[in-house]
Amino acid sequence: MSVLLPNMADFDTIYELEDEEDEHVVSDEHLPRYCPEPVVMRGAGHITVFGLSNRFDTEFPSVLTGKVAPEEFKTSISRVNACLKKNLPVNVKWLLCGCLCCCCTVGCSLWPVICLNKRTRRSIQKLLEWENNRLYHKLGLHWKLSKRKCESSNMMEYVILIEFLPKYPIFRPD
User: Fold this and answer.
1) Where is each Golgin subfamily A member 7/ERF4 domain found (predicted)?
2) How much is the pTM?
């Protein structure tokens, strides 16, 4: 009977396993999560000021089918386009004025258009954050304005990236 019952003196003793090299436990945090490639929405307008196009295409990408409704997508892109339509003509006017006066002001006349372009980018970023918090984070998507290199030249352009958020297994036991 003493063979079946453990010795109570050794009950709290911690033993090291000698086969630790063979046994690897990997936590879920270190496992790679599958996330599809982000969707890149390039500018579709005919005017670009400092890499920011004057509009984005409202055509629904097929990759987002089943993730978001086409109406919601079109509404979000329309909001971004409305912001660009409001701000970009003013930027173009200041750019033309700055280029005309550039020689006299040693380039300082371009500062207003740089500041206005930065303000336009910030307003689009705030709009996209509002859209994310309102809808897209709940659907597992994240929209952001990102700077990318153009495919056709060395110039930089601003694009809307639609990233897929990784899904975490919340029902898996610890």
Assistant:
1) 54-143
2) 0.72
